[in-house]
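Hi D.,

Good news: the full-assembly prediction came through. Inputs first.
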Amino acid sequence: MSDRRRLLGSVNTIIPNVDGTAQPAKIESKTEPRIDGLRPFFLKTGIIENANGSSYLEVGNNIIEVSVYGPRPIRGSFIDRASFSVECKFLPFISQPNEHLYNNTSISASSAANTTNQTNVNVNGRTGLTSIEHKISSYIETSLLPSIVLEKYPKSTIDVFVTIISTDSSLGGSYSDTKMLSLVNWVLNASSVALVDSGIEVKDVVTSGVAHLQNDVLVLDPTEIQEKDEGSVSCVASFMNLRNDEIVGIWIEGDQTNLENSQVDHLLDGCNDMSKKVRANINSYFTTS
Amino acid sequence: MILSPAERSYLYDSLAQSPPIRPDSRSDHQFRPLEAKTAFLPGSNGSARIRLMDGSECIISVKAKVVLASQESSLIECDIDIAGFRDDSNFVSNLKFYLTNLLLHNFPVRYLKLTSRYAFKLFLDCIVVSHSSYPLSLISLTSYLALKTTRLPLLVSDVNDEEIAEQPTFSDDWDNAKYIDDYLKEGETFEPPIFITLGVIGPNLIIDPSTEEEQVLENGLIISFYNNNVITPISNINLATNSNNSNFKGLNRTLITKGIALGNKYCPAIISALNTLIEQDDEEGTIF
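Then the structure:
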Protein backbone atom coordinates (compact mmCIF):
# COMPACT_ATOMS: atom_id res chain seq x y z
CA MET A 1 0.00 0.00 0.00
CA SER A 2 1.61 3.25 -1.02
CA ASP A 3 1.70 6.34 1.14
CA ARG A 4 -1.02 8.69 -0.15
CA ARG A 5 -0.36 11.59 2.22
CA ARG A 6 2.98 12.53 0.81
CA LEU A 7 4.24 13.36 -2.61
CA LEU A 8 6.61 10.53 -3.28
CA GLY A 9 7.17 10.78 -7.01
CA SER A 10 6.67 7.93 -9.37
CA VAL A 11 7.29 4.42 -8.12
CA ASN A 12 9.62 3.27 -10.84
CA THR A 13 12.12 6.11 -10.60
CA ILE A 14 15.62 5.20 -11.64
CA ILE A 15 18.39 7.20 -10.06
CA PRO A 16 21.17 7.69 -12.59
CA ASN A 17 24.31 5.97 -11.55
CA VAL A 18 26.55 9.05 -11.63
CA ASP A 19 27.40 11.61 -9.03
CA GLY A 20 27.01 15.27 -9.79
CA THR A 21 30.58 16.40 -9.35
CA ALA A 22 32.10 17.82 -12.47
CA GLN A 23 35.14 16.27 -14.06
CA PRO A 24 38.22 18.45 -13.91
CA ALA A 25 38.65 20.43 -17.07
CA LYS A 26 40.78 18.31 -19.30
CA ILE A 27 44.10 19.95 -19.89
CA GLU A 28 44.70 19.77 -23.61
CA SER A 29 47.79 17.66 -23.78
CA LYS A 30 50.47 18.74 -26.13
CA THR A 31 51.43 16.26 -28.77
CA GLU A 32 53.47 14.27 -26.32
CA PRO A 33 54.81 11.09 -27.80
CA ARG A 34 52.77 8.18 -26.69
CA ILE A 35 52.81 4.49 -27.40
CA ASP A 36 49.29 3.18 -27.17
CA GLY A 37 49.48 -0.42 -28.31
CA LEU A 38 47.68 -2.75 -25.99
CA ARG A 39 48.64 -6.38 -26.00
CA PRO A 40 45.88 -8.73 -27.10
CA PHE A 41 44.56 -10.81 -24.24
CA PHE A 42 42.67 -14.06 -24.01
CA LEU A 43 39.74 -14.22 -21.64
CA LYS A 44 37.40 -17.00 -20.62
CA THR A 45 34.86 -17.21 -17.82
CA GLY A 46 33.05 -19.98 -16.03
CA ILE A 47 35.79 -22.56 -16.26
CA ILE A 48 35.65 -23.63 -12.62
CA GLU A 49 32.47 -25.54 -11.94
CA ASN A 50 32.23 -25.36 -8.17
CA ALA A 51 33.05 -21.66 -7.89
CA ASN A 52 30.29 -19.07 -8.18
CA GLY A 53 32.31 -17.20 -10.75
CA SER A 54 35.67 -17.65 -12.38
CA SER A 55 37.86 -16.21 -15.06
CA TYR A 56 41.00 -17.17 -16.89
CA LEU A 57 43.18 -14.52 -18.50
CA GLU A 58 46.28 -14.80 -20.65
CA VAL A 59 48.27 -11.78 -21.71
CA GLY A 60 51.81 -12.08 -23.00
CA ASN A 61 53.29 -14.78 -20.82
CA ASN A 62 51.11 -13.91 -17.84
CA ILE A 63 48.46 -16.47 -17.01
CA ILE A 64 46.00 -15.59 -14.26
CA GLU A 65 43.11 -17.59 -12.91
CA VAL A 66 40.53 -16.11 -10.53
CA SER A 67 37.69 -17.83 -8.76
CA VAL A 68 34.99 -16.14 -6.71
CA TYR A 69 33.20 -17.97 -3.94
CA GLY A 70 30.22 -16.19 -2.57
CA PRO A 71 28.01 -14.97 -1.24
CA ARG A 72 28.54 -17.80 1.24
CA PRO A 73 26.62 -17.84 4.49
CA ILE A 74 28.52 -17.39 7.73
CA ARG A 75 27.64 -18.86 11.05
CA GLY A 76 27.71 -16.97 14.29
CA SER A 77 27.24 -13.27 14.79
CA PHE A 78 25.06 -11.16 12.52
CA ILE A 79 26.69 -8.75 10.07
CA ASP A 80 24.60 -6.39 7.98
CA ARG A 81 27.00 -6.27 5.03
CA ALA A 82 28.98 -9.03 3.40
CA SER A 83 32.63 -9.27 4.30
CA PHE A 84 34.93 -9.30 1.32
CA SER A 85 38.37 -10.84 1.08
CA VAL A 86 40.95 -11.44 -1.60
CA GLU A 87 43.81 -13.90 -1.58
CA CYS A 88 46.38 -13.86 -4.33
CA LYS A 89 48.90 -16.66 -4.73
CA PHE A 90 51.67 -17.45 -7.15
CA LEU A 91 52.19 -21.08 -8.02
CA PRO A 92 55.20 -22.30 -6.01
CA PHE A 93 57.80 -22.29 -8.77
CA ILE A 94 56.81 -19.07 -10.45
CA SER A 95 59.26 -16.21 -9.99
CA GLN A 96 57.61 -13.29 -8.28
CA PRO A 97 58.51 -9.77 -9.39
CA ASN A 98 61.15 -8.23 -7.08
CA GLU A 99 61.06 -11.30 -4.87
CA HIS A 100 64.70 -11.00 -3.84
CA LEU A 101 63.94 -7.62 -2.32
CA TYR A 102 60.76 -8.34 -0.44
CA ASN A 103 60.55 -12.05 0.19
CA ASN A 104 63.83 -12.55 2.05
CA THR A 105 65.30 -14.81 -0.60
CA SER A 106 68.94 -13.85 -0.88
CA ILE A 107 70.65 -13.48 -4.25
CA SER A 108 72.95 -16.41 -3.67
CA ALA A 109 70.02 -18.66 -2.86
CA SER A 110 67.97 -17.64 -5.85
CA SER A 111 70.89 -17.77 -8.27
CA ALA A 112 71.67 -21.25 -7.02
CA ALA A 113 68.07 -22.11 -7.61
CA ASN A 114 68.14 -20.58 -11.09
CA THR A 115 70.73 -23.07 -12.18
CA THR A 116 68.39 -25.90 -11.35
CA ASN A 117 65.62 -24.04 -13.12
CA GLN A 118 63.73 -23.33 -9.92
CA THR A 119 63.34 -19.69 -9.12
CA ASN A 120 61.83 -19.82 -5.69
CA VAL A 121 63.63 -21.91 -3.16
CA ASN A 122 61.80 -22.59 0.02
CA VAL A 123 58.26 -21.90 -1.03
CA ASN A 124 57.08 -25.43 -1.55
CA GLY A 125 55.31 -26.21 1.62
CA ARG A 126 54.86 -22.67 2.81
CA THR A 127 51.57 -21.94 4.42
CA GLY A 128 51.29 -18.17 4.43
CA LEU A 129 51.57 -15.65 1.63
CA THR A 130 54.76 -13.79 0.73
CA SER A 131 54.99 -10.01 1.10
CA ILE A 132 54.36 -9.46 -2.60
CA GLU A 133 51.30 -11.71 -2.56
CA HIS A 134 49.95 -9.85 0.47
CA LYS A 135 50.48 -6.53 -1.26
CA ILE A 136 48.76 -7.61 -4.48
CA SER A 137 45.87 -9.09 -2.46
CA SER A 138 45.29 -5.86 -0.61
CA TYR A 139 45.48 -3.77 -3.79
CA ILE A 140 42.78 -5.93 -5.40
CA GLU A 141 40.67 -5.85 -2.24
CA THR A 142 40.88 -2.06 -1.86
CA SER A 143 40.06 -1.54 -5.54
CA LEU A 144 37.10 -3.89 -5.78
CA LEU A 145 35.58 -3.01 -2.39
CA PRO A 146 33.89 0.26 -3.50
CA SER A 147 32.23 -1.45 -6.46
CA ILE A 148 30.48 -4.33 -4.70
CA VAL A 149 27.02 -3.76 -3.25
CA LEU A 150 27.83 -5.42 0.07
CA GLU A 151 24.54 -4.28 1.62
CA LYS A 152 22.72 -6.81 -0.56
CA TYR A 153 24.42 -9.70 1.15
CA PRO A 154 24.05 -9.62 4.93
CA LYS A 155 25.41 -12.55 6.95
CA SER A 156 27.71 -13.64 4.13
CA THR A 157 31.25 -13.60 2.88
CA ILE A 158 32.57 -13.11 -0.61
CA ASP A 159 36.00 -14.62 -1.19
CA VAL A 160 38.15 -14.06 -4.23
CA PHE A 161 41.05 -16.42 -4.88
CA VAL A 162 43.64 -15.43 -7.46
CA THR A 163 46.19 -17.90 -8.74
CA ILE A 164 49.04 -16.65 -10.86
CA ILE A 165 49.99 -19.56 -13.05
CA SER A 166 52.72 -17.90 -15.08
CA THR A 167 54.43 -14.51 -15.12
CA ASP A 168 56.06 -12.48 -17.82
CA SER A 169 59.72 -13.02 -17.13
CA SER A 170 60.73 -11.18 -20.29
CA LEU A 171 59.83 -7.83 -18.79
CA GLY A 172 62.94 -6.05 -17.54
CA GLY A 173 65.46 -7.57 -15.20
CA SER A 174 64.68 -9.08 -11.88
CA TYR A 175 64.45 -5.57 -10.44
CA SER A 176 61.49 -4.06 -12.16
CA ASP A 177 58.60 -2.32 -10.51
CA THR A 178 56.91 -2.00 -13.85
CA LYS A 179 56.70 -5.76 -14.10
CA MET A 180 54.98 -5.89 -10.73
CA LEU A 181 52.52 -3.13 -11.59
CA SER A 182 51.74 -4.65 -14.97
CA LEU A 183 50.94 -7.95 -13.30
CA VAL A 184 48.75 -6.22 -10.69
CA ASN A 185 46.89 -4.50 -13.51
CA TRP A 186 45.97 -7.75 -15.24
CA VAL A 187 45.14 -9.50 -11.97
CA LEU A 188 42.66 -6.74 -11.24
CA ASN A 189 41.03 -6.95 -14.67
CA ALA A 190 40.73 -10.73 -14.36
CA SER A 191 39.22 -10.42 -10.86
CA SER A 192 36.61 -7.93 -12.09
CA VAL A 193 35.56 -10.31 -14.84
CA ALA A 194 35.28 -13.18 -12.36
CA LEU A 195 33.16 -11.00 -10.09
CA VAL A 196 30.80 -10.22 -12.97
CA ASP A 197 30.66 -13.91 -13.85
CA SER A 198 29.64 -14.75 -10.29
CA GLY A 199 26.54 -12.58 -10.58
CA ILE A 200 27.32 -10.63 -7.42
CA GLU A 201 25.81 -7.16 -7.67
CA VAL A 202 28.34 -4.47 -8.50
CA LYS A 203 27.95 -0.74 -9.02
CA ASP A 204 30.32 -0.82 -11.96
CA VAL A 205 32.89 -3.14 -13.47
CA VAL A 206 36.28 -1.98 -12.22
CA THR A 207 38.94 -2.00 -14.92
CA SER A 208 42.46 -0.78 -14.74
CA GLY A 209 45.34 0.39 -16.84
CA VAL A 210 49.08 0.54 -16.45
CA ALA A 211 51.39 3.17 -17.88
CA HIS A 212 55.08 3.92 -17.84
CA LEU A 213 56.55 7.39 -18.27
CA GLN A 214 60.17 7.89 -19.17
CA ASN A 215 61.74 10.98 -20.75
CA ASP A 216 58.21 12.31 -21.34
CA VAL A 217 57.30 9.26 -23.41
CA LEU A 218 54.21 7.54 -22.13
CA VAL A 219 53.88 3.83 -22.82
CA LEU A 220 50.61 2.05 -22.12
CA ASP A 221 50.77 -1.61 -21.10
CA PRO A 222 54.59 -1.55 -21.09
CA THR A 223 56.14 -4.81 -22.21
CA GLU A 224 59.79 -4.06 -22.42
CA ILE A 225 61.52 -1.28 -20.62
CA GLN A 226 64.53 0.33 -22.20
CA GLU A 227 67.54 0.61 -19.91
CA LYS A 228 66.56 1.75 -16.46
CA ASP A 229 66.78 5.45 -16.23
CA GLU A 230 66.61 8.11 -13.56
CA GLY A 231 63.21 9.67 -13.68
CA SER A 232 61.07 6.83 -14.94
CA VAL A 233 57.67 6.43 -13.31
CA SER A 234 55.15 3.62 -13.57
CA CYS A 235 51.57 3.72 -12.47
CA VAL A 236 48.69 1.33 -12.22
CA ALA A 237 45.27 2.87 -11.66
CA SER A 238 41.85 1.27 -11.49
CA PHE A 239 38.67 3.07 -12.40
CA MET A 240 34.92 2.79 -12.30
CA ASN A 241 34.46 4.17 -15.80
CA LEU A 242 30.71 4.59 -15.66
CA ARG A 243 30.80 6.35 -12.33
CA ASN A 244 32.57 9.49 -13.39
CA ASP A 245 35.91 7.72 -13.76
CA GLU A 246 36.28 7.39 -10.01
CA ILE A 247 39.69 6.09 -9.06
CA VAL A 248 39.33 3.05 -6.83
CA GLY A 249 42.94 1.97 -6.83
CA ILE A 250 46.19 3.76 -7.53
CA TRP A 251 49.80 2.73 -7.11
CA ILE A 252 52.71 4.79 -8.44
CA GLU A 253 56.32 3.59 -8.37
CA GLY A 254 59.41 5.21 -9.76
CA ASP A 255 63.02 6.24 -9.46
CA GLN A 256 62.69 9.94 -9.96
CA THR A 257 63.85 12.61 -7.54
CA ASN A 258 60.65 14.58 -7.60
CA LEU A 259 57.17 13.92 -8.82
CA GLU A 260 55.46 16.63 -10.81
CA ASN A 261 51.70 16.93 -10.81
CA SER A 262 51.82 17.05 -14.60
CA GLN A 263 53.51 13.64 -14.64
CA VAL A 264 50.79 12.18 -12.44
CA ASP A 265 48.10 13.70 -14.68
CA HIS A 266 49.78 12.31 -17.74
CA LEU A 267 50.04 8.84 -16.19
CA LEU A 268 46.45 8.86 -14.98
CA ASP A 269 45.22 9.93 -18.43
CA GLY A 270 47.09 7.01 -19.91
CA CYS A 271 45.78 4.55 -17.33
CA ASN A 272 42.25 5.82 -17.82
CA ASP A 273 42.43 5.40 -21.60
CA MET A 274 43.79 1.90 -21.20
CA SER A 275 41.14 0.98 -18.64
CA LYS A 276 38.46 2.10 -21.11
CA LYS A 277 39.94 -0.06 -23.83
CA VAL A 278 40.05 -3.04 -21.49
CA ARG A 279 36.50 -2.27 -20.46
CA ALA A 280 35.35 -2.19 -24.08
CA ASN A 281 36.96 -5.57 -24.65
CA ILE A 282 35.36 -7.04 -21.55
CA ASN A 283 31.98 -5.62 -22.56
CA SER A 284 32.21 -7.15 -25.99
CA TYR A 285 33.28 -10.45 -24.49
CA PHE A 286 30.19 -10.56 -22.29
CA THR A 287 27.80 -9.42 -25.00
CA THR A 288 29.04 -11.81 -27.63
CA SER A 289 29.73 -14.93 -25.60
CA MET B 1 36.21 1.34 19.11
CA ILE B 2 33.17 0.89 16.90
CA LEU B 3 31.01 3.94 16.30
CA SER B 4 27.23 3.83 16.27
CA PRO B 5 25.42 4.84 13.05
CA ALA B 6 24.49 8.19 14.61
CA GLU B 7 28.06 8.88 15.67
CA ARG B 8 29.33 7.91 12.25
CA SER B 9 26.93 10.20 10.48
CA TYR B 10 27.74 13.12 12.84
CA LEU B 11 31.46 12.60 12.39
CA TYR B 12 31.13 12.24 8.62
CA ASP B 13 29.14 15.44 8.30
CA SER B 14 31.54 17.48 10.38
CA LEU B 15 34.57 16.16 8.50
CA ALA B 16 32.97 16.81 5.11
CA GLN B 17 32.42 20.50 5.95
CA SER B 18 34.80 23.00 4.50
CA PRO B 19 36.97 23.58 6.38
CA PRO B 20 36.58 20.19 8.10
CA ILE B 21 35.75 20.11 11.80
CA ARG B 22 37.82 17.37 13.38
CA PRO B 23 36.86 15.75 16.69
CA ASP B 24 40.13 16.76 18.33
CA SER B 25 39.87 20.30 16.89
CA ARG B 26 42.94 19.90 14.73
CA SER B 27 43.09 21.69 11.41
CA ASP B 28 43.13 19.54 8.27
CA HIS B 29 46.93 19.63 7.95
CA GLN B 30 47.86 19.17 11.61
CA PHE B 31 49.59 16.12 13.04
CA ARG B 32 48.74 14.75 16.45
CA PRO B 33 51.27 15.82 19.09
CA LEU B 34 54.05 13.33 19.70
CA GLU B 35 57.00 12.92 21.99
CA ALA B 36 60.20 11.28 20.92
CA LYS B 37 63.52 10.09 22.22
CA THR B 38 66.53 9.21 20.11
CA ALA B 39 69.77 7.27 20.53
CA PHE B 40 68.84 5.48 23.76
CA LEU B 41 69.66 1.87 22.91
CA PRO B 42 73.35 1.33 23.76
CA GLY B 43 73.67 -1.85 21.67
CA SER B 44 72.49 -0.45 18.36
CA ASN B 45 73.87 2.10 15.93
CA GLY B 46 70.75 4.18 15.99
CA SER B 47 67.46 4.10 17.81
CA ALA B 48 64.34 6.14 18.28
CA ARG B 49 61.01 5.98 20.00
CA ILE B 50 57.87 7.96 19.33
CA ARG B 51 54.86 8.09 21.60
CA LEU B 52 51.60 9.67 20.59
CA MET B 53 49.16 11.15 23.06
CA ASP B 54 46.68 8.30 22.53
CA GLY B 55 49.24 5.82 23.82
CA SER B 56 50.55 4.62 20.47
CA GLU B 57 54.21 3.80 20.72
CA CYS B 58 56.84 2.67 18.25
CA ILE B 59 60.47 1.76 18.88
CA ILE B 60 63.00 1.33 16.09
CA SER B 61 66.56 0.12 16.34
CA VAL B 62 69.03 0.37 13.48
CA LYS B 63 71.96 -2.01 13.39
CA ALA B 64 74.76 -2.03 10.86
CA LYS B 65 76.69 -5.05 9.68
CA VAL B 66 79.66 -5.21 7.33
CA VAL B 67 78.77 -7.34 4.32
CA LEU B 68 80.17 -8.26 0.93
CA ALA B 69 78.07 -5.95 -1.24
CA SER B 70 77.95 -8.42 -4.13
CA GLN B 71 76.14 -11.01 -2.05
CA GLU B 72 73.33 -8.78 -0.89
CA SER B 73 70.25 -7.87 -2.87
CA SER B 74 69.82 -4.66 -0.89
CA LEU B 75 71.80 -2.75 1.70
CA ILE B 76 68.82 -1.98 3.87
CA GLU B 77 66.32 -4.38 5.36
CA CYS B 78 63.33 -3.86 7.64
CA ASP B 79 61.37 -6.00 9.97
CA ILE B 80 58.16 -4.93 11.66
CA ASP B 81 56.57 -6.44 14.69
CA ILE B 82 53.16 -5.26 15.82
CA ALA B 83 51.72 -6.22 19.17
CA GLY B 84 48.52 -8.18 18.71
CA PHE B 85 49.09 -9.12 15.06
CA ARG B 86 50.62 -12.24 13.60
CA ASP B 87 53.82 -11.65 11.65
CA ASP B 88 52.35 -13.33 8.58
CA SER B 89 49.11 -11.34 8.67
CA ASN B 90 48.18 -9.13 5.76
CA PHE B 91 48.32 -6.05 8.01
CA VAL B 92 51.92 -6.56 9.11
CA SER B 93 53.12 -7.78 5.70
CA ASN B 94 51.75 -4.69 4.01
CA LEU B 95 53.35 -2.30 6.47
CA LYS B 96 56.64 -4.09 5.99
CA PHE B 97 56.24 -3.91 2.23
CA TYR B 98 55.53 -0.17 2.37
CA LEU B 99 58.55 0.65 4.52
CA THR B 100 60.94 -1.62 2.61
CA ASN B 101 59.71 -0.23 -0.69
CA LEU B 102 60.17 3.37 0.45
CA LEU B 103 63.70 2.82 1.73
CA LEU B 104 64.82 0.70 -1.23
CA HIS B 105 63.88 3.44 -3.64
CA ASN B 106 64.86 6.50 -1.72
CA PHE B 107 67.62 5.71 0.74
CA PRO B 108 71.03 6.93 -0.47
CA VAL B 109 72.74 3.53 -0.20
CA ARG B 110 75.87 4.82 -1.93
CA TYR B 111 76.97 6.28 1.42
CA LEU B 112 76.94 2.82 2.97
CA LYS B 113 79.69 1.60 0.62
CA LEU B 114 82.94 1.14 2.54
CA THR B 115 85.32 -0.20 -0.08
CA SER B 116 84.82 -1.61 -3.53
CA ARG B 117 83.82 -4.93 -1.96
CA TYR B 118 82.48 -4.21 1.47
CA ALA B 119 79.53 -2.16 2.56
CA PHE B 120 77.44 -1.53 5.62
CA LYS B 121 74.06 -3.18 5.59
CA LEU B 122 71.43 -1.53 7.79
CA PHE B 123 68.83 -3.59 9.61
CA LEU B 124 65.79 -1.75 10.89
CA ASP B 125 64.00 -3.52 13.69
CA CYS B 126 60.68 -1.98 14.40
CA ILE B 127 58.30 -2.72 17.25
CA VAL B 128 54.89 -1.13 17.53
CA VAL B 129 54.07 -1.59 21.19
CA SER B 130 50.62 -0.14 20.88
CA HIS B 131 48.65 1.65 18.20
CA SER B 132 45.12 2.80 17.51
CA SER B 133 45.16 4.40 14.06
CA TYR B 134 46.96 2.96 11.01
CA PRO B 135 50.59 2.91 12.24
CA LEU B 136 52.42 3.59 8.96
CA SER B 137 53.20 7.27 9.49
CA LEU B 138 54.13 6.55 13.12
CA ILE B 139 56.59 3.88 11.97
CA SER B 140 57.96 6.03 9.21
CA LEU B 141 58.54 9.09 11.41
CA THR B 142 60.28 6.88 13.96
CA SER B 143 62.46 5.41 11.23
CA TYR B 144 63.35 8.95 10.18
CA LEU B 145 64.60 9.73 13.68
CA ALA B 146 66.42 6.41 14.02
CA LEU B 147 68.21 6.67 10.66
CA LYS B 148 69.04 10.31 11.20
CA THR B 149 70.74 9.51 14.51
CA THR B 150 72.45 6.35 13.27
CA ARG B 151 76.20 6.43 13.85
CA LEU B 152 78.55 4.21 11.91
CA PRO B 153 82.08 3.41 13.13
CA LEU B 154 84.92 5.21 11.37
CA LEU B 155 86.75 3.18 8.74
CA VAL B 156 90.51 3.30 9.33
CA SER B 157 91.71 0.80 6.72
CA ASP B 158 92.32 1.63 3.08
CA VAL B 159 89.26 2.42 0.96
CA ASN B 160 90.82 1.02 -2.18
CA ASP B 161 90.92 -2.77 -1.97
CA GLU B 162 90.75 -3.58 -5.65
CA GLU B 163 94.43 -4.62 -5.85
CA ILE B 164 94.93 -6.17 -2.44
CA ALA B 165 92.08 -7.88 -0.68
CA GLU B 166 91.74 -6.44 2.79
CA GLN B 167 89.17 -6.74 5.51
CA PRO B 168 87.89 -3.33 6.58
CA THR B 169 88.96 -2.28 10.07
CA PHE B 170 87.36 0.39 12.16
CA SER B 171 88.40 2.91 14.78
CA ASP B 172 87.99 1.60 18.34
CA ASP B 173 86.85 4.97 19.56
CA TRP B 174 83.05 5.30 19.41
CA ASP B 175 83.48 9.08 19.62
CA ASN B 176 84.91 8.97 16.10
CA ALA B 177 81.78 7.32 14.72
CA LYS B 178 80.11 9.34 12.03
CA TYR B 179 76.50 10.11 11.25
CA ILE B 180 75.35 9.33 7.72
CA ASP B 181 74.94 13.07 7.38
CA ASP B 182 78.72 13.49 7.75
CA TYR B 183 79.38 11.49 4.58
CA LEU B 184 77.35 13.84 2.47
CA LYS B 185 78.80 16.68 0.45
CA GLU B 186 78.89 20.21 1.81
CA GLY B 187 75.47 21.82 1.62
CA GLU B 188 73.54 18.56 1.45
CA THR B 189 71.65 17.19 4.40
CA PHE B 190 70.63 13.62 4.99
CA GLU B 191 66.90 13.46 5.46
CA PRO B 192 65.52 9.93 5.22
CA PRO B 193 62.23 9.47 3.34
CA ILE B 194 58.93 9.54 5.24
CA PHE B 195 55.35 8.49 4.62
CA ILE B 196 52.27 10.49 5.49
CA THR B 197 48.74 9.17 5.52
CA LEU B 198 45.91 11.30 4.18
CA GLY B 199 42.26 10.62 4.73
CA VAL B 200 39.81 11.41 1.93
CA ILE B 201 36.39 12.62 3.01
CA GLY B 202 33.99 14.52 0.77
CA PRO B 203 36.03 17.25 -0.92
CA ASN B 204 38.56 17.30 1.92
CA LEU B 205 41.89 15.69 2.65
CA ILE B 206 42.93 15.35 6.27
CA ILE B 207 46.47 14.62 7.36
CA ASP B 208 47.13 11.91 9.94
CA PRO B 209 43.58 10.66 10.56
CA SER B 210 42.85 9.35 14.04
CA THR B 211 41.17 6.03 14.69
CA GLU B 212 37.65 7.51 14.89
CA GLU B 213 38.18 9.47 11.70
CA GLU B 214 39.47 6.37 9.90
CA GLN B 215 36.12 4.66 10.38
CA VAL B 216 34.19 7.19 8.33
CA LEU B 217 36.76 7.98 5.63
CA GLU B 218 35.84 7.52 1.99
CA ASN B 219 39.36 6.50 1.03
CA GLY B 220 42.95 6.92 2.13
CA LEU B 221 46.13 8.05 0.40
CA ILE B 222 49.71 7.25 1.26
CA ILE B 223 52.21 9.79 0.06
CA SER B 224 55.97 9.66 0.44
CA PHE B 225 58.28 12.58 0.84
CA TYR B 226 62.04 12.82 0.38
CA ASN B 227 64.51 15.67 -0.20
CA ASN B 228 61.84 18.37 -0.10
CA ASN B 229 59.68 16.67 -2.71
CA VAL B 230 56.76 14.33 -2.83
CA ILE B 231 58.03 11.19 -4.51
CA THR B 232 56.89 7.63 -5.17
CA PRO B 233 55.56 5.25 -3.88
CA ILE B 234 52.08 6.73 -3.77
CA SER B 235 49.05 4.55 -3.30
CA ASN B 236 45.54 4.48 -1.96
CA ILE B 237 44.49 2.38 0.99
CA ASN B 238 41.49 1.41 3.04
CA LEU B 239 42.51 2.75 6.45
CA ALA B 240 39.67 1.18 8.40
CA THR B 241 40.82 -2.19 9.72
CA ASN B 242 37.48 -3.84 9.04
CA SER B 243 36.13 -3.85 5.51
CA ASN B 244 32.82 -2.87 7.10
CA ASN B 245 33.26 0.84 6.38
CA SER B 246 30.15 1.65 4.40
CA ASN B 247 31.48 5.07 3.35
CA PHE B 248 34.37 3.57 1.42
CA LYS B 249 34.29 4.61 -2.23
CA GLY B 250 36.43 5.68 -5.15
CA LEU B 251 38.22 9.00 -5.25
CA ASN B 252 38.15 11.85 -7.68
CA ARG B 253 41.45 12.35 -9.47
CA THR B 254 41.68 16.00 -8.45
CA LEU B 255 42.15 14.75 -4.89
CA ILE B 256 45.35 12.95 -5.86
CA THR B 257 46.82 16.16 -7.27
CA LYS B 258 45.59 17.97 -4.18
CA GLY B 259 47.22 15.35 -1.96
CA ILE B 260 50.58 15.78 -3.67
CA ALA B 261 50.32 19.56 -3.31
CA LEU B 262 49.42 19.14 0.36
CA GLY B 263 52.45 16.92 0.87
CA ASN B 264 54.76 19.43 -0.80
CA LYS B 265 53.34 22.20 1.34
CA TYR B 266 53.33 20.67 4.82
CA CYS B 267 55.94 17.90 4.86
CA PRO B 268 58.91 20.32 5.10
CA ALA B 269 57.38 21.51 8.38
CA ILE B 270 57.20 17.92 9.66
CA ILE B 271 60.84 17.34 8.69
CA SER B 272 62.03 20.53 10.36
CA ALA B 273 60.03 19.69 13.51
CA LEU B 274 61.72 16.28 13.65
CA ASN B 275 65.14 17.86 13.10
CA THR B 276 64.56 20.33 15.94
CA LEU B 277 63.49 17.43 18.09
CA ILE B 278 66.81 15.66 17.47
CA GLU B 279 68.78 18.83 18.24
CA GLN B 280 66.95 19.40 21.51
CA ASP B 281 67.17 15.77 22.60
CA ASP B 282 69.68 15.59 25.46
CA GLU B 283 71.80 12.51 25.94
CA GLU B 284 71.14 12.23 29.67
CA GLY B 285 67.37 12.50 29.66
CA THR B 286 65.46 9.57 30.97
CA ILE B 287 63.55 7.55 28.40
CA PHE B 288 60.48 7.06 30.55
